[in-house]
Amino acid sequence: MLYALLAPLGSDFILFNLLNSITFRAGSAAVTSLVIAFVIGPRVIAWLKSQQPHGQPIREDGPKGHFAKAGTPTMGGLLLLLAGIASTLLWSNLTNGYVWATLLVTLAYGAIGFVDDYHKLTKRHSRGLSASNKFGLQIGVGVAAAVWISWLTRSPLDTGLALPFFKDLLVDLGWFYFAFAAFVMVGASNAVNLTDGLDGLATVPVLIAAACLGLIAYLVGHAVFANYLLVFHIPGASELAVFSAALVGAALGFLWFNAPPAMVFMGDTGSLSMGGALGAVAVIIKHELVLAIIGGLFVLETVSVIAQVTSFKLTGKRVFRMAPLHHHFEQKGWQEPTIVIRFWIIATVLALAGLATLKIR
Questions:
Q1: What's the CA angle centered on 27, arms 23 and 30, to 5 degrees?
Q2: In this predicted model, what pLDDT tens digit does every residue of 227-243 receive, in sequence order?
Q3: Structural domain boundaries enclosing 54
Q4: pLDDT single digits (tens) 250-288
Q5: 155 in any annotated domain
Q6: Does the residue 49 lie in any domain?
Q7: Total count of domains within the chain
Q8: pTM of the predicted structure, to 2 decimals
C-alpha cells in the first residue's frame, strides 16, 4: 500500500526512493508488525479472555503440570495474523502475485485453525474438528495454492523440484508437483501445530524459520545473488522477504505475551496459519526440501508422533513416554523452560544448517 502510494514520488522526494529497496521495506515490515503486536496485544488478549471464561481445554491425558494453565485463553494466533498481515499490506508491492498467494494461504489456514479452536472451546474438549475435515480443508487449500503458484512461476520451475547440494538440478514432477506442493504446505502447517505444546515453544522456531526463508527469498529473487549462489532465479520472489519479515516481527511481538508463563496460547489459529505460511514461501522459492532442514525441529516433533502411533499399533509398545517429543521430556522430569530453551537452540542450529545448503553445491 505504502509502496504503491509513495514509491512513484521518489523522483520528487528522494526519501521515498527508500521504498524501492526491498531490504528497507522488509525491516520496516518487521518493526511495524512488532509495534502492532505490542499495541493491540493486551486488547486482543482481554477480548479473548472475555469470550473464553474457562480458557483452552487441557488435554486430559497430558502432563499433569499443564492443569495449572487452566483458564489461559487460546486463539492468540489472531494477534499474529492481524500484525503480520497488516504490516505486509502496508509495506509489500501488492501487484506481486506471490505476496497474495502467501497471504491467502496464511488466512485460509488460519481460518481452519480458528474453526478448530472454536469447536474445542464450545465442546470443552481438547479435540476440535475431525481429522478428515481438517485435513480435507487443508489439502483443498494446498492444492489450489499449488496450482496458483505454479501458474505464477515461469517454466520449467513451475512444476520443478530443486534439489539442495546440486547446482542446476531440477526434477520435473509434472502433475504430481501439485500434490507434492500441497503436501509441503499441509505438512508444515500440522508440524508447527504439533510443536505448539509449551509456552513459547513453537513461536521462536517459527520466527527463525521465517527469517531464514525470507533471506533465501531475497537471494533467489535477485538475479546476481542467485547466479553467484548457483540457485534458481525466481523473479518476484524477493518480495516475500517483506512478508517473512512481517511474520518475524509479529512472532516477536506475540512472544512477549506467549513467553512462560503464557498470557495467551497460539492455538490452531496461529500454528496452522504460521506453518502454512512457511510452507507456501518454501514452495514459491523452490526450497521445499531445505524447509525440512530449517524447520527440522518441527520435523522431529512430527516424526516422534508418527513413530509413537506406528509402534503402538504394531507392537502395543510406545517409543516415547508421551508424544510429541517435548511431552516425553516433560515426563522424564525436565522443567518446561529447560525444554523450551533447548529446543530453541536445536531450532537455531538446524536453521543454520539449512542456510549452509546455499553454499554447498
A1: 140
A2: 999 999 999 999 999 99
A3: 22-356
A4: 999 999 999 888 899 999 999 999 999 999 999 999 999
A5: yes
A6: yes
A7: 1
A8: 0.94
